[in-house]
Amino acid sequence: xxxxxxxxxxxxxxxxxxxxxxxxxxxxxxxxxxxxxxxxxxxxxxxxxxxxxxxxxxxxxxxxxxxxxxxxxxxxxxxxxxxxxxxxxxxxxxxxxxxxxx
Length: 102
Known about the structure:
Blueprint: H1 4-48, H2 52-72, H3 77-80, H4 83-101
Helix pairs in contact: 1-2, 1-4, 2-4
């Protein structure tokens, strides 16, 4: 049997690794969420300016970022269902719907 200090070290190392993975996923999701919101707003502005090809391209590019964030967070539902990620998804949906209606 391992001495208690060795078991504690193993638990600590495992916990630290888990927190590092969670932190990296969160930071990545924050960055991607900001990018999705920014690109969605720009796509909506392009529709208002009647730059439909530009808006279509922007929504397609944003869709790729949405797919990446969904893949990255598939093992982190606690992060995926946070407000900042859901707000980004909402903005993307709004841009796509607005483009489709117009």
